[in-house]
Amino acid sequence: MRGPVPRHVAIIMDGNGRWAEKRNLSRAEGHRAGMRALRRTVEACRDLGIEILTVYAFSTENWKRPRDEVDALMDLLGEWIHKEQQELLDNDVQVRVIGFPGPLPPETRRALDDLVKATSRNKGAVLCLALNYGGRREIVEAARRVAEKAARGLLDPATLDEKAFEAELETAGIPEPDLLIRPSGEMRLSNFLLWQIAYTELWFTPVLWPDFQPEHLAEAVEAYRSRDRRYGGLHEDKD
Ligand code: IPE
Ligand code: IPE
Ligand code: MG
Fold this sequence. Notes:
Layout: E1 8-12, H1 16-22, H2 27-48, E2 52-59, H3 67-90, E3 93-99, H4 106-118, E4 125-133, H5 135-151, H6 162-166, E5 179-182, E6 201-204, H7 214-225
The structure holds 3-methylbut-3-enyl trihydrogen diphosphate (IPE) (2 copies) and magnesium ion.
């Protein structure tokens, strides 16, 4: 039995540094190659009929890296926006950002805002960029908002349920990922989408992100389609 193609795929774009190291290139070159892999993957998602792609581009912990690497990543993000904007518009892709863009350089933030606004009416697919994103931080911020509402008398804590809590997360309105892919051989989540992946299917590959090809995505999707998602029940019943 083969199930449907995943509606929402999330990817931890990892392994850029190791890819560069193997080639005696700078880590920034690795990130540039990672940017090309992102472009290929957005196209491959379209070809496969995947509606939503969420990519982990920068974590709340990645600020620990040397300043020049962080700067290079921010510059690349600006460059990516500049290069891809037209293509995303032409392909009817809506861009969303999850995370806490506050500490990003102001010009990057402006470019991101413009991209999000310019694509906000697109309906073909969604590309969700996780930038300065951390799952724990997201949950704490949501809890804070809930507490504030309760303190102002706008919410009765007794009525709080999972659905109401989810509405306070960065991903409000986006269905949870069906499939999470982590390249580079690491078998961890690194603080990505902790709430949302409760029942997501996981797929790991040793391939480094800059080497990730449409065939790898197709392989992950095929593996996904052969899985039996039980959600704690029996067979494929969700309820
Ligand atoms: C992922 O690649 C990119 C970001 C975290 C921004 P890495 O830079 O983590 O690559 P490795 O894990 O060092 O190979
Ligand atoms: C996760 O990769 C973050 C992104 C890909 C943006 P890391 O390279 O930061 O994760 P760890 O440090 O290996 O857990
Ligand atoms: Mg890494």
